[in-house]
């Protein structure tokens, strides 16, 4: 056991040794022994005093001892003395962070590893372990980081392979893990990642290590590789490791770190991919962390900023007003945290700087300029000061809109870009923000040099692999710049470049489907205007994306809000495409396109309730499973009530207690959609089911005309057309006049305005007569002429399948039709008209019902009062149908919302005699007024699982009106 000495005793020993040295010649063996003892005494004294002078003198004495002749009988050989020197240098490098010491230690330890250390009684494993630690210090100091991590991995794997019973593997692996954590916190690269990950995986197999740092280090390494390669396997493995640490007990720093890293990882994935469930998981984890007490103020400030961004993203995705309120609340909390703290306490964000008065902003700018003047380029703080100066100028510009402040921002951006590591996963950001600011400078100054540089910067970004996940955003920004330059200079090259970039953007899997769909519509319009050959590709891409952009919305209300958001861009796209196909003479393809577009939301609802008879006969288990998933999806889609509450029970969240009911709804819906997609793919692989739930071909939908021709009106700004569909002959086209589109809009507008005067008003009746006459001139006359030309006899059954404004115009009543006998006749006097929302619905309605003992019946719901003078007469007419089918009546006090919903479950048809209310922009809140002004909403009726409503028509009419 080593003898312990006090400082006083060591001082006496040092004094005695120094006296002895002064009397002994250097060539004498005793001189060497005294130097050895003096070096060790100084080293011992440093352990007690912690004075750097003792360590420095110890190093000097050990260095001298190496070059002295060996001392007879002294136990340290020259290699051992050299090793003691290395240990002292290592201690000084570790505790005082002197770069030159680190370089020496690394060089000396590498030299020692090349010697037969066992011969000199020096532990090879200890030398290797120390080299690992020295290399980590070198990484930390960034003196020569090239290749350090790679060498560390090799050394660690060597130590692991030795199966030593000592603590060397533990020290080495924990040191490697510390380096990984350090790199992560500094957002620096770790290479080679694959080697690091495999090494840490091997280390996890050694139970003796016993520290949470190893799974944490492995998780962080996987996160860094995920950021580079976007591998879901890496994400899943990292999250599993972090969850295992979080679940361990007792709660300590490791668990807190794991919770923080898990939240960051979820946030990264939500930023990469548009999947709504990813956003909900990240929101849940951040909300849970902010609700804990263990976050320090700096982390709390940072996470509050992230939570504000996540909540804002939820609002943008789903239109949730609560999410916007939550975002504002977190922003206020973040600013409050910063305002009650000393300057520099937190890493300030835009919201913090925005809260300062202009005087403080200008003062910060002056102080930073002074700091930068005293900090040479290359200094570790130089870029930090440049970045801070840029942010404060940005804050000032947001208030003054002074171009000089923006120019200062751009100068700083250029400095940061010049020193950026473009190979780093986030190395593209300086260029990204520079491009945005250059375009902003063009908007402020109208100087084309800013515009040209913005285009150049964004083109360069598209070549950077690290910016791959932001291509959609980059291309949109590049579109803006190219569009402006095209407007100013009229260069065809800019237009061609834009069109070439469209496919890259709309196929970007990192972008939201709804955004890709909207951009594909823009692509189609621009290509069509420019007569570019990509028009058809653009329309086909838009058609392939439109359904997914609605299905990803979890509720009917959100689906409707997305449709409204696409007004003027995406809502007309199927009609645009059909008009293009008609222009190309592709009538059958146009009818297929219109069928797909008209049936979008409607077909989704019908698809969820799709008849399983044929599938049940072929594969009953698949049919049962699909029906169950469809039922669950339908329940979720209609789970939000008009009051905004969510009616769903899913047993809680598996992600964390920070997930709210809407978040759980989103996660559950996405899981069900994934299960359904897998199941549908399996069904489509079955013989005879290749077209299961796919858009029907023309060869199928032409049978919609088996009971009479179907007249399809495509009301479109590009060109409007009327198509007549026959079962056994090609479609027939009725060209329209150039002003057809505008005239139809005016007819609809006049009727809508007149309705406000009341349906019994003279104004409405006069307008209705005029509109019916206008409809005849616009549609009726050419249709009747065409039907007669084609040999369709009068009193034949015909079907209207209208689009756009014609969904709200009374086509069946248009007229009067001029006649030789002077008798007024209307369209329904010549033909027997009916309406169909889609051709598929018409075909489905003609299929024989399954054999059942069920007898169709009708539910009459009435709430008559003085304001409905014809109510009782109408009721009598409906009740007289009792001779043909059973009629059940709910009237007055019996017609409660609950009673009506229950009645709807037992009747195939329903007729309402009461007032109704429409909610602008909220079609599912439209309602019938029942007894005591109680409301029965459209959503209540849809939920009854009895009436299959034409949701698409309803939404379209809501948009138009």
Automatic annotation (TrEMBL):
This is CHAT domain-containing protein. InterPro entries: CHAT_dom (IPR024983). It comes from Multifurca ochricompacta. Pfam families: CHAT. It comes from the Eukaryota. The lineage of its organism: Eukaryota, Fungi, Dikarya, Basidiomycota, Agaricomycotina. Residues 772-959 form the CHAT domain.
